[in-house]
């Protein structure tokens, strides 16, 4: 039996490091942002590497959803799926979520906005996906009849083993110490967008200590952060501790 683990994050969090942690287990296959292709096609956004991405990945949301509800491609017992909440546009199928276990990875929207804008040049409420993340939390709960764990990226960095043990327990999956470190470098499982976004995680070998956002938050982004904060705080109130 395949256990499907959907991790729902916004951008500029530690979602790729979390993917590394799960991929470093011997029993887990991963899928990196499966709905990125349909998101770019539908929105027309000019993200870094857009044409390369659209040409390389599936763009049929229905086909992707069916694969998300299926077995891991290599037959692994665990199938980790790294999902970006902002990619789940209106009309994207969500009923497949009933066949999965879920976790929600959050980060203070001020840090997300500053980091995203430093790479992309700007950030909007839709780019951050915080409100959509709360909607997806409620959807997962409605479809499965269960409350699912929420983890703050800062807490993971401050106490990787403690939070990961708590997370695995909440997902009813055995903890594996292999999740705490991994070899540096790129992975075949990384999305084709890795050259534009994954420089830091490619150099990593584990979870680094937390630090304040290294980017300046322009005043123009303060309304974006304010709009995202209520959803973030609602999810934060449910965050795991260790």
UniProtKB/TrEMBL annotation:
Keywords: Amino-acid biosynthesis, Branched-chain amino acid biosynthesis. SUPFAM superfamilies: P-loop containing nucleoside triphosphate hydrolases. The keyword Amino-acid biosynthesis applies. It comes from the Bacteria. The keyword Hydrolase does not apply. Belongs to the class-IV pyridoxal-phosphate-dependent aminotransferase family. PANTHER family: AMINO-ACID AMINOTRANSFERASE, AMINODEOXYCHORISMATE LYASE. This is Sulfotransferase family protein. It comes from Hyphobacterium marinum.
């Amino acid at each position: 039996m395949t256990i499907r683990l959907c991790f729902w994050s916004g951008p500029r969090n530690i979602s790729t490091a979390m993917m590394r942690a799960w991929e470093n287990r011997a029993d887990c296959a991963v899928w990196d942002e499966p709905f990125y292709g349909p998101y770019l096609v539908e929105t027309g956004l000019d993200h870094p590497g857009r044409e390369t991405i659209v040409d390389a990945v599936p763009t049929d949301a229905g086909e992707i959803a069916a694969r998300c509800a299926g077995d891991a491609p290599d037959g692994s017992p665990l199938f980790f799926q790294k999902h970006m909440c902002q990619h789940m546009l209106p009309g994207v199928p969500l009923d497949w979520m009933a066949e999965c276990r879920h976790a929600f990875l959050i980060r203070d929207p001020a840090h997300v906005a500053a980091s995203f804008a430093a790479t992309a040049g700007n950030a909007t409420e839709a780019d951050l996906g915080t409100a959509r993340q709360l909607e997806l939390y409620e959807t997962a709960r409605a479809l499965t009849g269960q409350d699912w764990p929420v983890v703050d990226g800062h807490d993971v960095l401050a106490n990787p083993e403690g939070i990961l043990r708590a997370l695995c327990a909440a997902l009813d999956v055995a903890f594996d110490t292999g999740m705490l470190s991994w070899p540096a470098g790129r992975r075949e499982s990384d999305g084709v967008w890795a050259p534009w976004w994954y420089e830091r995680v490619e150099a990593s070998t584990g979870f680094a200590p937390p630090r304040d956002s290294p980017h300046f938050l322009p005043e123009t982004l303060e309304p974006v952060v304010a709009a995202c904060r209520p959803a973030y705080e609602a999810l934060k109130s449910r965050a795991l501790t260790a």
